[in-house]
C-alpha cells in the first residue's frame, strides 16, 4: 500500500487539539496513520504573526491516489474550520494546514499538486518532524535521505 507523508501546522486556537483532531480525521478518512512525529513549536514562516505554530508530520498508508489525498486533506481542513488557503505565497494565521510532502517515491507536477512538496527542504518546521519519523526515506528528486536535506543539517 502506498505511503504518504503529510506535514501539519496550526497557530490558532487549541493547537495541540487541532493537530490531534487532524491526525484522527486523517486516520479515519485517508488511511492508517502508521507514524506521527512529536509536536514542534516554531515561529511563523513567510509572514509576521504574534502566534507561534505547532507543527507535526504523519506517515499514512493509503489506497487513495495523490490527487484524492489532496482533496481529502482539504476536506479535513474545512471540517476543522479552515476557510481560506494561502495563495501565491501569501500566508496568514490558520487553524490547520495539511500539506502533502511525499507520496512513496512519486514525482507529480500538475496545476493542483506538486510532489515532492517543492519547498519542504527549505523549511525546518517541515523537515524536523518529518526526519523524526522518516529520516532514512530517500527524497525522490534529490536521491538523498531526508535527514541529509534539512536546512539545519546544512549549517
From TrEMBL:
Taxonomic superkingdom: Bacteria
Class of this enzyme: transferase
Stretches assigned to coiled coil: none
ATP-binding keyword on record: yes
Entries under CDD domains matching the protein: HPPK
GO MF annotations in UniProt: 2-amino-4-hydroxy-6-hydroxymethyldihydropteridine diphosphokinase activity
Keyword NADP: no
Pathway in which the depicted protein is active: Cofactor biosynthesis; tetrahydrofolate biosynthesis; 2-amino-4-hydroxy-6-hydroxymethyl-7,8-dihydropteridine diphosphate from 7,8-dihydroneopterin triphosphate: step 4/4
7,8-dihydro-6-hydroxymethylpterin-pyrophosphokinase domain residues: 5-134
Keyword terms: ATP-binding, Folate biosynthesis, Kinase, Nucleotide-binding, Transferase
Family matches, as PANTHER family: 2-AMINO-4-HYDROXY-6-HYDROXYMETHYLDIHYDROPTERIDINE PYROPHOSPHOKINASE
Similarity section: Belongs to the HPPK family.
Primary role: Catalyzes the transfer of pyrophosphate from adenosine triphosphate (ATP) to 6-hydroxymethyl-7,8-dihydropterin, an enzymatic step in folate biosynthesis pathway.
Protein name listed in UniProt: 2-amino-4-hydroxy-6-hydroxymethyldihydropteridine pyrophosphokinase
Lineage: Bacteria, Pseudomonadati, Bacteroidota, Bacteroidia, Bacteroidales
